[in-house]
């Protein structure tokens, strides 16, 4: 039986839309249509150049609807409109063309001479039908970094957006309908956990690409194991910013603010642990407090707003609970707290919050909070900083801040994480692979490695003299 679910504004706490959830039969039909398009339709026989041309058409259509997309994302998840325009929509628009550039120079076929003298052809072929499952925090960016490489690889895709943010995915589906893709190549199946479970466990799916929490990622991996479905997982993080003793406090504060508090801190690669030399602890804390105290929190539709609400009341309560935990654990609350920001009496807001003099064993230093909370932890020397950075269940991102690039690279080489920035957060460069280790998942998105994630490698050996 079909049912609708509401999309709620995090600012007004009022419904802004109703969306029909996909039924089990609808998920089955989408997978079946994707299989048909791949196995017997024109998409399965298409050449890379044809697929690149299709994505370039999509990029042109996307550019025409960027304002609509930014307003949609701002309304459904509470992202400030300026951030929505720049990052939530601007980045995906840029990524589409960058992925096309990568595909144009990708080694789709290679000839080798085998050890025994045979002529070997190595071909890259689509992995098949892809189930793409994305969260709500950067919905278009995360859709595009799955959907576009999968399509360029020649796959077909069944996309499940988060129930908090289905509207942007449905708007993208409108755009896809304008670029003459064959039927069944892309389907969107909105809904909750039940829809995701149906997709992940479906025997007609060849690969699942999942972004979400580590707990959910474990369940996805287990379900995929039953069918030997290939899976890539981009999961949570508790990334460390290692501040070396020669880094300027004001530059560190500005960079960490951008890398940690954008999107109200609801970013998986946020630099939520700031490791500072104990001799300069107070200098860096003071600089961070000054930077964070100037953040303008409020209505996400106002261009002057720098931080909007969290996506849901549940998320608001979760983050406030962690703030209380940090205080009970003995960390020093420098800024913020559990009260509403000044001038606001509704909406799922949390004040930008800074803890200092924390210990790496505290829960606020070990567990992903996914909100505007930064924890400063002192360290003794470089070796201690590396030990603290690596003492985490996660390994998604990180950074090193210093005036000495060679020193930074030496530190970075010792950090067990998938991505790092030097004097910056990780920039999500479309030509550089992104992904994690340990509890942050496995597999890579972006770069040629991201494209290869949707390709199988076939070798064909021709006997000598044949």
Automatic annotation (TrEMBL):
Transmembrane segments: none annotated. The active site is at residue 234. InterPro entries: Ald_DH/histidinol_DH, Ald_DH_C, Ald_DH_CS_CYS, Ald_DH_CS_GLU, Ald_DH_N, Aldehyde_DH_dom. This is aldehyde dehydrogenase (NAD(+)). Keywords: Oxidoreductase. One of its GO terms (molecular function) is aldehyde dehydrogenase (NAD+) activity. Pfam families: Aldedh. The keyword Flavoprotein does not apply. Residues 4-460 form the Aldehyde dehydrogenase domain. Belongs to the aldehyde dehydrogenase family. SUPFAM superfamilies: ALDH-like. It comes from Mycobacterium rhizamassiliense. It catalyses: an aldehyde + NAD(+) + H2O = a carboxylate + NADH + 2 H(+). Its EC number is 1.2.1.3.
């Amino acid at each position: 039986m079909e049912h609708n679910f509401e999309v709620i504004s995090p600012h007004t706490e009022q419904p802004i839309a109703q969306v029909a959830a996909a039924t089990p039969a609808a998920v089955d039909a989408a997978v079946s249509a994707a299989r048909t398009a791949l196995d017997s339709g024109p998409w399965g026989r298409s050449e890379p150049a044809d697929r690149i041309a299709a994505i370039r058409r999509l990029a042109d259509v996307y550019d025409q609807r960027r304002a609509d997309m930014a307003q949609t994302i701002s309304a459904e998840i509470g992202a400030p409109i300026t951030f929505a325009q720049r990052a939530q929509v601007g980045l995906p628009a840029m990524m589409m063309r960058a992925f096309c550039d990568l595909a144009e120079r990708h080694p789709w076929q290679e000839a080798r001479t085998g050890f025994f003298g045979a002529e070997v052809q190595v071909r890259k072929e689509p992995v098949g039908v892809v189930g793409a499952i994305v969260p709500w925090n950067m919905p278009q960016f995360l859709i595009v970094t799955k959907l576009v490489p999968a399509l360029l690889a020649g796959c077909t895709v069944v996309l499940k957006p988060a129930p908090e943010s289905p509207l942007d995915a449905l708007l993208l589906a409108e755009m896809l309908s304008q670029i003459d893709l064959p039927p069944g190549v892309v389907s969107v199946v909105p809904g909750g956990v039940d829809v995701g479970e149906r997709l992940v466990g479906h025997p007609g799916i060849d690969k699942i690409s999942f972004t979400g929490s580590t707990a959910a990622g474990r369940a996805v991996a287990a379900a995929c194991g039953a069918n030997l479905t290939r899976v890539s997982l981009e999961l949570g993080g508790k990334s460390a910013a290692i501040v070396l003793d020669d880094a300027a406090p004001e530059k560190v504060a500005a960079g960490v603010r951008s890398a940690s508090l954008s999107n109200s801190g609801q970013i998986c690669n946020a630099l939520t642990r700031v490791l500072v030399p104990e001799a300069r602890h107070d200098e860096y804390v003071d600089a961070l407090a000054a930077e964070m105290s100037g953040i303008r929190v409020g209505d996400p539709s106002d261009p002057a707003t720098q931080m909007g609400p969290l996506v849901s009341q549940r998320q608001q309560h979760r983050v406030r609970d962690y703030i209380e935990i940090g205080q009970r654990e003995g960390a020093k609350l420098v800024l913020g707290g559990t009260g509403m920001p000044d001038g606001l009496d509704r909406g799922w807001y949390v004040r930008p919050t800074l803890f200092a003099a924390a210990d790496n064993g505290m829960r606020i230093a070990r567990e992903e909070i996914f909100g505007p909370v930064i924890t400063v932890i002192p360290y003794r020397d470089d070796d201690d900083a590396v030990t603290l950075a690596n003492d985490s269940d996660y390994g998604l991102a990180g950074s090193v801040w210093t005036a000495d690039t060679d020193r930074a690279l030496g530190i970075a080489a010792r950090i067990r994480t998938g991505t790092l920035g030097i004097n910056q957060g990780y920039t999500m460069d479309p030509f550089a692979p992104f992904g994690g280790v340990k509890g942050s998942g496995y597999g890579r998105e972006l770069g040629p490695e991201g494209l290869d994630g949707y390709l199988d490698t076939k070798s064909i050996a021709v006997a000598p003299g044949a």
